[in-house]
Amino acid sequence: MSELTENQQKVLTAIRNGADTNDNIAEKSGVAKGSITAVVNSLIKRELVAKSDEGRYIPVDLEQDGTSADVVVIGAAAPVQKTGVTVLIPYLKDEAAGEELKYALRTWEKHFTEEFNVVVIGDKEDWFSPEITHIPHEPHLIKEVCNCPSPSLIRNPQADVTHKIFTAIASGIISDDFILSNDDIYLLGKTFLEDIKTLKAFGTLDKSGEEGGLYNQNAKRTAKALLANNLPTHRYGTHTPMLLNAEKLAQVIEKYGALDNAFLLTSLYFNETHPDARPIQVDGTKTDPILASVYRSNVEDHLLKSIFAQRKFMNCNSKGWISVKAHLAIAFPEPSRFEK
Hints:
By secondary structure, this protein is of the alpha/beta class. It is built from eleven helices and 16 strands. 36% of the residues lie in helices and 18% in strands. The protein has a five-stranded mixed sheet. The protein has a three-stranded mixed sheet with strand order 11-16-15. The protein has a two-stranded parallel ribbon with strand order 1-4. The longest helix is centred in the middle third of the chain and has 15 residues, at 157-171.
């Protein structure tokens, strides 16, 4: 059975009703024109739509009632009433070391100065309250990049995140400007929207991850694509929240074929949309005044107290969670509205 987002269903219905160009589909479906190609491409991939030799879109296996027997629409039964800016968090429960997401949301509620709502795409926790809009999304597999005759299907984390974000945009739940964050990013002090808007980079893409690892391969692929378009190669994946525009992001995903290839999506996006930017440099080390990246299980207590008192953002990995969880419990003891 195939699950369709609300926007995918709208576009599919428009095509089945005779719309065969981007302009016609946008007019009949009500979906933003800038998102049409990306949504249609997702339907082509599902083999629900095909493209004719003349470049027009045609439905596949049209049913008399205008729907396909193996299609389920997600997100259509209960329209989301959003207020404020949306914070989108892709989430894979198996990769969580503990209650990172729960405490991340507590920090947002305490320190973010804007009205906001939360969308989590991926897995769901039992403690989610109705204040969280949850979009189910299974881990996405792509072909391994190798010099072999039969590449395996693997979960490439960066490709998986791109599919999650695209699904959220195609659903219509994510639109306009939104904040992209992670389950292990924490706001440690009063945070304004301007703090998140400010572009931050972690050097350049040529120095990313362990040589030969998946992240390193994805970074090199991203740099190559950007250089081919005469664009800079700032590495924007800084483990801090960032503000993106849904329509522009859908266009970037389409331009670079990011649904079928593993790229560092935010680096594609910001280098494409802000080619002349001079982003603030962060590295998460002891001398970084903005970000603390905690990647050890035995970080000294005095250092953690200094981080909580002075830094604006903190992130951690599974080892770092061991160091920070007690400090988070002390600093943010009250449940947020996102918990039952």
